[in-house]
Amino acid sequence: MNTKPLRASVSRHAHFNAAHRLYVKTWTDAQNEAQFGPCSNPRYHGHNYELIVKLTGPIDPVTGYVYDLGTLSSLIKREVEARLDHRNLNEEVPEFFDRVPSAEFIAVAIWKWLRPHLPVHLDLHITLYETPRNFVEYDGAQ
Amino acid sequence: MNTKPLRASVSRHAHFNAAHRLYVKTWTDAQNEAQFGPCSNPRYHGHNYELIVKLTGPIDPVTGYVYDLGTLSSLIKREVEARLDHRNLNEEVPEFFDRVPSAEFIAVAIWKWLRPHLPVHLDLHITLYETPRNFVEYDGAQ
Amino acid sequence: MNTKPLRASVSRHAHFNAAHRLYVKTWTDAQNEAQFGPCSNPRYHGHNYELIVKLTGPIDPVTGYVYDLGTLSSLIKREVEARLDHRNLNEEVPEFFDRVPSAEFIAVAIWKWLRPHLPVHLDLHITLYETPRNFVEYDGAQ
Amino acid sequence: MNTKPLRASVSRHAHFNAAHRLYVKTWTDAQNEAQFGPCSNPRYHGHNYELIVKLTGPIDPVTGYVYDLGTLSSLIKREVEARLDHRNLNEEVPEFFDRVPSAEFIAVAIWKWLRPHLPVHLDLHITLYETPRNFVEYDGAQ
Amino acid sequence: MNTKPLRASVSRHAHFNAAHRLYVKTWTDAQNEAQFGPCSNPRYHGHNYELIVKLTGPIDPVTGYVYDLGTLSSLIKREVEARLDHRNLNEEVPEFFDRVPSAEFIAVAIWKWLRPHLPVHLDLHITLYETPRNFVEYDGAQ
Amino acid sequence: MNTKPLRASVSRHAHFNAAHRLYVKTWTDAQNEAQFGPCSNPRYHGHNYELIVKLTGPIDPVTGYVYDLGTLSSLIKREVEARLDHRNLNEEVPEFFDRVPSAEFIAVAIWKWLRPHLPVHLDLHITLYETPRNFVEYDGAQ
After folding, report:
1. F14: phi then psi, degrees, rounded to nearest 5
2. Nearest Cα residue to F13 out of F69, F64, F66, F59
3. Positive or negative CA dihedral for D96, D99, D104, D107?
């Protein structure tokens, strides 16, 4: 084994459920219906979101850890679940007062909430299942 | 093989997502919060519901079918998904205007919607996952 | 703990894949198409079948076993997988030369193959997933 | 709707991981190896156990609940996970000091731990996955 | 938030089932058997294929979408499922008249069918499960 | 189709179960408890590990294969499962006599065992689930 640390990824699942609707405030109802279909229902619908947070970086040669997954789990509870679980995303989460709570933008919000609390030398990648059949990924890229 | 038909079960998965809140209209907010916790959030939360409809009865000796699962799938779309998918259960589904939309009562409602459209000689059993970790079952029993 | 043995169930997953078509030999093509739709395609289609074999009976108080799942796994390999895996059910499996290879009848065949090799004091229950969304069950009932 | 309460089942998933070995103390190593194969490894092996606790009984007509799944989840944490999670079953769990920690007997132990804390009018059924491919069930039957 | 669009991926699950056999027309039966084993069975076998289509590109700042997953689902139905579902790949799908319908080449075919119908600024990545235990990926790379 | 081979990935699932504990030999018990919590239990705990081995490289234009998954499955059995399945990682696997058997280092060990037996032109990527909620990845990177 050489002395340069090996690089690996570690991932942790979490979950939350929430109500939302997809609509653009400045559009007419007809425009929203045309774009978002039943997802624009003004009385909301909801999902069980399944979240996977992945961190990539060097393996600590002593502990064998890239990052402690127990710590990561606590961080997700505090920064993500406390904000989103059992919430109405449009009405109760400031990030979506003026932004469509699409799965893409929810993933972006999660990335932004977690990023400042993680070591800078670790890459952060978010996977978010809106349903078991639809999911999105975001890693901070522009 | 004897001439008495063999008995088997056939099951079909379906899914829908919806918003709801759990609360009893005649209770105070504090009572609802005490009983239902964050599930009583007045601004709603939501789930991806996963539904399994099981029919039990004789196997037709010619077709090899207990019941055509394509027909069952269409029936579920018409009687269940059309009523519940992308809906607010409390505000848009009459069964829950005066009844808590708990997973148990949603399963009861689904059973009642499907039962009249299925042959009387088939038993009907409903399994409903509210989350991947919580599920209920109902088969018409009292 | 009293001396009467406790009763429990043990289950084992297995899997195989196969080609089949659903059709009744004595029917016309139009009748088969009307009954079975694309499942009657004369050139076959196929599935990954997922099988769950459940045995119910007394727990041996010394070994803690209802039945050895390693033994059950070997039995499934010999009696079920050897007959069905990578096979054309209509053309290569005698049970389906004159019988529709519906999921129901495949489950019945599996039950009949396994039953003679298992202790008579154990109940046998078959669950067979034809797809992740469709499954059947058979336990020998008439 | 008549006045007799409807009966339904509610289920909750939980999980824990543990080390164990399968062996009978009064047997020779050769006997244990013959009966349990690699599961009798004296240095232990381990599993992620997946637990499903099902309760069956009347639906409360006001709350729509058979039993509060949040309460059930807390009960499982206290009575089951606290005893089994991250444990060596043979050495640290008294129920298995003189009894093989087979999946069957673990399910029996879980049933016995939970039963006194649940209302007597509810039936209790335990499903325990030892691996994603092997599982057992116990409901108190003899 | 800066004005350069954020980049994310969106993915959609779909599925189809089909029969196939793996063999090279210009090889002898013995060569095919040696290379492909039971997968070369001349009477075919089959699978439930699970497909994941991933698109990567900028998030539309107004709709919050990389691409509409409802549109993607319809496109998959028309371009992929209509060609493959309930088919015999070797005999009914021209792409495999002279090419082994391995999972790899099925993924390549799916990529080629979808690519012309998707915006050029989106990257396309195909994941195809042939069984729950085997899967392939293709993204147009050479 | 041009003559340069297409590049794809093929993946195979496998699984094993094992006991382990996380601790650094040169640390005190208190240090280990502080770092690893219940995972440092001196009497061990265990997991069902789920392994995914991915190979990336050119598709053979004749066989349609990147690599034969049957061969890969046999290789995993011989090089990985034979070393790890039903083992105590700390006491029976030399790689972990002086190294923490964290999921990260188990993935590294698997990569090192498999790499010499695979063609050099194929990239190797390891995914290892320690539980259904925690997983790691390693591809040889430094």
Report:
1. -150, 175
2. F69
3. negative
Where are any strands of DSSP class E within chain F?
7-20, 45-58, 87-88, 123-131, 134-138
Residue D92 phi, psi (nearest 5): -120, -5
> What pLDDT is attached to residue D2?
52
The DSSP letter of residue F25 is: T
CA distance to C2, C59, D125, E19, per residue, from C121 (Å)? 20, 12, 22, 40
**Residue D2 in domain:** no
Identify the domain containing residue E52 by its residue range: 7-138
B75-134: pLDDT as tens digits = 999 999 999 999 999 999 999 999 999 999 999 999 999 999 999 999 999 999 999 999
Q: How far is A38 from chain F (nearest CA, A)?
A: 32
Which residues, 6+ apart, have CB-to-CB distance to A84 below 8 Å?
A: A16, A18, A49, A93, A106
Residue located via tokens 């729509």: D64
Q: What is the pLDDT of residue B2?
A: 53
**Burial classification of residue E119, based on how many CB atoms lie within 10 Å of its CB (0-12 exposed, 13-18 middle, 19 or more buried):** exposed
Q: Which among C14, C12, C15 has a CA at the least distance from the CA of C86?
A: C15
**What does the mean pLDDT of chain D come to?**
96
Tell me: pLDDT of D64 over 80. Answer: yes
Q: Residue C2 pLDDT > 60, yes or no?
A: no
- pLDDT digits over A57-79, tens only? 999 999 999 999 999 999 999 99
Query: Which tokens in the block code for residue E68?
Result: 């509409």
Asked whether residue B60 is domain-assigned, the answer is yes
Paired tokens of C18: 């196969």
pLDDT category of residue E1 using cuts at 50, 70 and 90:
very low
F42 and F79 in contact (C-beta within 8 Å)? no
Count of domains in chain B? 1
Yes or no, beta carbons of B64 and C142 under 8 Å apart: no
Asked whether residue E1 is assigned to any structural domain, the reply reads no
Beta strands F134-138 and F123-131 are antiparallel
Which of C50, C91, C131 is closest, CB to CB, to E17?
A: C131
Residues of F in contact with E100 (CB under 8 A): 62-64
Task: Show the tokens assigned to D69.
Answer: 């799944």
Facing residue for C104 by CB, picked from B2, B65, B70:
B65
Active-site residue, selected from the candidate residues C13, C15, C86, C117: C86
A48: alpha, beta or left? (left if phi > 0; alpha if psi -120 to 50): beta
Alpha-carbon distance B142 to B30, whole Å? 31
CATH number at residue B82: 3.30.479.10
Cβ(F101)–Cβ(F89) under 8 Å?
A: yes
* Cβ neighbours around E97 below 10 Å, total: 12
pLDDT over 70 at A2, yes or no: no
Nearest-CA distance D11 → chain C (Å): 18
Question: Which of these, A141, A57, A126, A3, lies nearest to F141 by C-alpha position?
Answer: A57
Residue E129 confidence (pLDDT): 98
- Residue E4 pLDDT grade (very low, low, confident, very high; cuts 50, 70, 90): confident
**How many Cβ contacts (< 8 angstroms) between chains A and F?**
58
Residue F121 appears among annotated catalytic residues: no
Q: Which residues pair with C9 in a beta bridge?
A: C56, D137
Whole-model pTM: value is 0.95
Per DSSP, what are the bridge partners of residue A19? A46, A88
Contact B33, B27 (CB under 8 A): no
Nearest Cα to D39, choosing from D89, D81, D80, D85?
Answer: D89
CA atoms within 13 A on the CB side of E84: 27
Q: Is the pLDDT of residue E107 over 60?
A: yes
Residue F11 lies in a domain: yes
Confidence of residue A4 (pLDDT cuts 50, 70, 90): confident
Task: Please give the pLDDT value at position F2.
Answer: 52
The answer to whether residue F125 is catalytic is no
Q: Where are the beta strands (DSSP E) in C22-122?
A: 45-58, 87-88
